[in-house]
Amino acid sequence: MNQISWLAVPTPETAHEGVKKLWAKAEANMGFVPNVFRAQALNGEQFLAWWNYFNLLVNKEGTLSNAEREMLAVVVSGANRCVYCEVSHGAALRHYSGNPVQADTIAVNWRHARLGPREEAMCAYAEKLTLRPAEMTGADLEPLRAADLDDAQILELVQVVGMFNLTNRVSSALGFVPNAEYHTQSR
Question: Any signal peptide, and if so, which residues (predicted)?
Answer without folding.
Answer: none
